[in-house]
Structures are given as C-alpha cells and as structure tokens.
Amino acid sequence: MAVQKILIHPDDRLREIAKPVSFPLSDEVKTIIEDMADTMYDAPGVGLAAPQIGVSLQIAVTDTLWRSDEVRHDADQDGGRRELKVWINPEFTWYSDESATWEEGCLSIPETYADVTRPSAVRLRWFDMDGQEHEQDFEDFQAVALQHEFDHLIGKLFIDHISPLKRRMITKKMKKLFKE
C-alpha cells in the first residue's frame, strides 16, 4: 500500500484519545492497517499506533521479532514481515505487580531513548481484523511494547513515564530539530 508520514512530538494530534473501531472493518480501515504495517517496517520500528500517522482510531500494529538487527536482516530476505500483529480496540485487563525497566524509543520521538519502568506482564483483550475477540497474557519485551503502543491510543508517549525535567529537555530538542 503506502508508507505514511509519522507525526513527530510535540504534534498535538499525538495527545488525542483514539476512537474505537467498528466491525466489520471498512475497506478504508483495512487500507489504514496495511499502510501502518508498511510505515512501521519502513521506519523501521517494532510497533506503530494509528495516531502516529494522524488517524484517531484504536489500532496498533507490532512485530516484536524485528527488534534486533540480526532478525531485521533475516526478515528482509522474506519480505520483511516476520510476525505482524494487528491489535484493534485493545484493553488491558490485568497488570502484574512486578515491574521491569527497559530502554524505550519511539518513531514519533526519533533518535531519543530513555529507561521506562512498566509492569513486566499484562493480560490483554483485543480484536483481530475479522472481529474475533482474543485475550492473552504477555510478558517481558512484548508486554512493554504493547503498553508503549497502546499508550498512543490514550494520548500518552513514553516520555510521560520519565521525569518532568527529562521530558521538557526532550520536547525542547524535538521542537528545535523538527520546526514546522
């Protein structure tokens, strides 16, 4: 389909709360999902939420197998799509009491990374493209990646989980680098 422009922080559209998706999916929504996958792989990234391309819908795509350069290289040989997951109207139904700290980055905040502490395991309920409901537990990197992407659906960024001083410094840097 088409690679879309990724919104860069502090674009106000990244702070909007996304709307639920209705089923059956329209052709327009299916195209948006295909574009999101193309955009994520092109960036390259391991996840992308619809608000990051200016679409206020509760949709995210991930491919957590794409997190290492070695896997990316192998994935390129088979078209780049190793384990694409589509998450529609996702909702966490449980968070573990244990937490883990991972270095996070974001396609909407390029070349910026920070340690973020989140629950180390989660239970998620979501719908697939056919409208089938699923519920599953995730842990470690997958749990972190899902929490990061689904934060976008409620207008949050990973920098909202770090100190206000660091957040202001990052925002100032983004404003300077990406003047509109």
Give the strand content.
25-35%
N-C termini distance: 27 Å
Number of helices: 4
**Overall body shape:** globular
Mean pLDDT: 91
- Order of secondary-structure elements: HEEHEEEEEHH
Q: What CATH architecture label applies? A: Alpha-Beta Complex
Please name the fourth-level CATH homologous superfamily.
Peptide deformylase
Contiguous runs where pLDDT drops below 50 for at least 5 residues: 68-75
Largest sheet: 5 strands, antiparallel
CATH topology, what is it called? Peptide Deformylase
The radius of gyration is 16 Å
Instruction: Output the CATH class name.
Output: Alpha Beta
Q: What's the domain count? A: 1
Which structural class do you get from the secondary structure elements?
alpha+beta
Please tell me about this protein's structure.
- It is a single chain.
- With 180 residues, the protein is of the alpha+beta class.
- The chain has a single domain (12-177), classed as Peptide deformylase (Peptide Deformylase, Alpha-Beta Complex), CATH 3.90.45.10.
- 28% of the residues lie in helices and 28% in strands.
- The chain is built from 4 helices and 7 strands.
- It has helices at residues 27-42, 69-76, 140-152, 164-177, and strands spanning 47-49, 59-62, 85-95, 99-106, 109-119, 121-127, 133-139.
- The strands form 2 sheets. The protein has a 5-stranded antiparallel sheet, sandwiched between helices. The chain has a two-stranded antiparallel sheet with strand order 4-5.
- A hairpin with a 5-residue loop joins strand 6 (121-127) and strand 7.
- The model is unreliable at 68-75 (pLDDT under 50).
